[in-house]
Fold these 4 entries.
Entry 1:
Amino acid sequence: MKFKRLFYLTFRGPPPGFTHGLIIGLSKKGWSGVIISDRIDHMDYPLSFGNFKVLYTSPSYEGGSLIKYPSLMNDALRREIFRRELIKVLSNDIEPDIIFIDGPIGVLFTQIPAFFSILGSLSMHKLKPIVIRFLGLNSLYTVYWEKNKAIRFYYRMEEIFQQQMATKTVFLNKLLFKIFPRLSYKAVYIPIGIDIQVFSPMPRPITSSKVIVSFVGRLSKENGIHTFIEAVKKVKKDNVKFLVVGSGPLEYLVMRELKGFDVQILSVAYRDMPQIYAISDVVVSPTFLEWPSTVTYEAMACGKCVIKSKGGIDEIITDGVNGLLFKPGNAEELAEKIRIASQDEHLRRCCGENARTLIVKKYNRELEVSRYDSLFLSLIS
């Protein structure tokens, strides 16, 4: 069988969710190629996924490297020189049919060196289709985007960049069609897909007689951890226990502010997340970010009642039907939603069942893989 060749570039370590699922799925459909990824040095990332080889752009990483780092340079510059030279070498070797760039976030402010290296390195492939998977903008709050001139200017520059570089842009969020109207002609909507076998309803272990409300994610401002902390203080219900699952720059704040409350802080591996959802009755996502929260999709796939801030991926949650919504940053409203969910088992069960049905029907991993396969094939046929 002749493989279809994909050159896959990501600016994060290949997460066990999207990258693993997509690459394994595409491998089954006859795709092969190379993944170039940043590497977080303390994590154990693999050297291959399916039919794909993985190479990492980390100065401390030697496995699979084709280019030696210059010795007398700072880390960032060494990384970008390595990335550029590595792409050149591989471009000559694999002759890709598709160049796929996953997740450029904050291009103008945080990824300028990386993207100039990409543009230079891929200049020899002007006739090759370039597909960019665009998540959204990190740390820029959706609720302000229409009023803030600086953010509107940023969006416009991002839009121009995508217009110049991408053959197709993949939006994970329908809101992005509104923010980037000039990209509509080349944008396609491919939402997150969840492995519904891994993330599925399981019997709740009897760990507590209380209703367990979980915050899952990075403990940071943009993920709404301040809102969650204030909501916990306002709930004051004897029948509620809180779990905080994650780590991040504001972990100290959680420990300090919620000392004395019925709150447990956990840090678990991604493979253990189905068990976290299993012990949770309610999952809270108070994020300010416009990009889709994988936690929301995973929790819904597990049949859990999700309480989420409005904005971003409202299209998958109907308030009171398959989840609950509240205004971003409004701790009082979040606390009230927690009270309602904790007191109404029937509501939690109905929301969870409806959420699971929606994910299985529209947001499953097989459907996501098929959408990318169809997109890539349409560009090379």
Entry 2:
Amino acid sequence: MLGLSDRRRTLTAPAFVSRRRELDELENHLSRAKAGQGGLVLVEGESGRGKSRLLTELAQRGSEEACWILRGQGQSEVGQKPLQLLEGIIQGLLAAFRSDPGLLMGVRDRLGDQCEAVAAALPGLAPVLAATGDSAAAGAGTTASDRAPEAFGEARSVEALACFLDALGSASRPALVILDDCQWADDLMIRLIARWQARRLGGTHGNCYSLLLVSFRSDECRPTIACATCRLLRTSRCLRLMPTKSGSSSNRWRALCLKKFCNWCCGFRTAARSWLRPCCMDLSNRQRLSPTPTAGVSRH
């Protein structure tokens, strides 16, 4: 009997039925990052093209292959603060550090002397990256006047954060860093992405086990973001999501849903008629049997 031996406690995972070619291309980039050839990939498309769904599917497959998945989400310009895109990554890092302290030690070792600069640029990571013990005592010997111009300079912050993105991935656990809705990124974040890509093109910083995916809506980019994106397109790989064909599975799914909805409406209308027919018949019989007074006739 069908279904007799197929007993499941959970629903089966939904199949990803569209964007097969784009998903295969992104998985190829992820495989290169595992081999130490990570880099920047731009995912471009208009609103509703399926960018977030595509990146979610890639993140799910990456987690199954022991990759470290970190994701940041862009926000609208209302109340925006610098490096807003990294807030989600910071929260993901803190959660991972609490569950596995070895990850924190690995990131600190790969950052080296950039830990303090990263902690200054990202205050959310200061409690875990700030210097302690002997390193703090050694840093105390430097006067504040010697450190201030360099420590709080934007150039050093961008360089330290670029090293930070490099330090997230390792040979044992590559990192997949997803930055979604970058059309709302601030200028400092764009400069950080450009600087990190320039380090990769220089080829002087060794292997890179981090894959940085930057997704943005091409129809909502500000002029400054659009110009920076054009510069990045010359030095990075770009994946443009084109509209799906009319015979694609997504359109077939919409047509199927519309057909089911129409069938439901027809069934509801038929049921409503069957429910109301006895009431209408009873009301009609009452009106026919009840005596109606004749106008102009008086009873004496």
Entry 3:
Amino acid sequence: MYVTESMSTPTRARLDVATNGTPGAAAVELFAQSKPFGAYRPPVATPHFVDFAARAVGSGATTRQIVFRHAGSDVFPITTVALRGAQSSDFTLASDCANRTLAEGGSCTLTVAFAPTASGPRSAEIQLISPFYSEFGLLVMGDGVAAGSTSPTTVIEYYHKGFDHYFVSSLDADIDALDSGRLAGWTRTGLTFKAYPGPVAGADSICRLYIPPAFGDSHFYGRSATECDQTRTKFPQFVFESPAVMYLFVPVNGVCAAGTVPVYRAFSNRGDANHRYTISRAVRDEMVARGWIAEGDGPDLVVMCAPL
């Protein structure tokens, strides 16, 4: 009996086996039911691929999270999660997906870490293996760069009185547009801090997201790839401008390492969302007194650490 996709309801038949020409000597009951193809679709990955920002060789790992959600109408078993590829040793996995069956709408989470062992493009494929699919692959990639003595650059703060918004940047194109008046209304506050323009050992990439006018007409700087992914998932309306506009250090329990200073982040807590980034605790406290919310780790609420 052939099973076709159209046989979505149970189908039964009887097979009579004749022995030496005598009918009815044996009978076998046959039963079959197909599942719609969509029932066994592979899980949907968010994000669909992972592109790590450039990272210095030997600087340790940075991580990203991937959520696999089963959108089919039946269960989807996953037996194995693995990495493959010539450069797969530059990536490591931590996952609750293996040896698990996802129900309809169910999900599991995978954390992939990237620690380049050599300079240049690095990539691998994450495989989800299931009895229903021989394999389901997702690309992860990043660039390794030689750790060097990259000199810090200056991050300049600007203020727009009409918007009551703050903005920081170390990028020449931004600074030129603001200082020249092509983007009208912005003036320097006189406050700055340092950051690295490229990967250095121990530093994390700082991403930049644009918050559209309907939600604030502002920018948000994520202090790690993980925070960036979480923010993009929570606020899909934000525009992802860059995975690495600068490099800073992440504090440990709110404490910055020797040779660095705390960077504070204050949130306006208004409909026109805005954040202010500063290395001055007094400025941060002044913003809090005005009704802004201090964000960060530890008793001093430190969000990042900048080089001296």
Entry 4:
Amino acid sequence: MRSTATSSARLLLVIVAICYSSATIANASQFSTDAAYSVFGSNGGSFGSASSDIDGTMFGSPDLTGGWITYSGNVTNFVSTTFCDEGICFVIFTGDLNSGSVSFGDSSYAFQGQITGGTITGSYYVSFGAFYETDVFSFTGAWNNGYQGVGGVGIIDVAGGNDGSFSVSTTTPEPGTIVMFGSSLVGLFGVLRLRRGN
């Protein structure tokens, strides 16, 4: 009987420790409500997709100095107009980004999200291949620790090099929610103990 009580007490301590550590993580200040990051370099993209290096943290946290951002959007309502003068042709194009994927991270963090809306605009010379495109879109997704985030991206692709920024607003779980979850676990433990005793 005594060993059963000791086991029960140990289990209760484990549950309380898990709830406390979860509340501590949720209260951590490594994620601010809003943060913004600059983007530069890496591979140029085309028509709603690109991969760029995260150049630095403009404000907020976490500090993402390093890593990358990659996105691939599904372009709809694509319209292009060609202008030619003395054998040199110039194309202007526009389109909508209503879906697709976006991710950013490195070896220590990761974010996976979906594009919720945006546009592409740009131009290029047919003969010379010089290319210019601006992609602007919003997204929603989650960090690898489960925190939810929404944000926006604005990237300019000029002749194979990218420049721009993105921002993300992160929602962290309320400590009260985690404590309530822990309380329900303790209650469930009590019910199971009573049943086991009968």
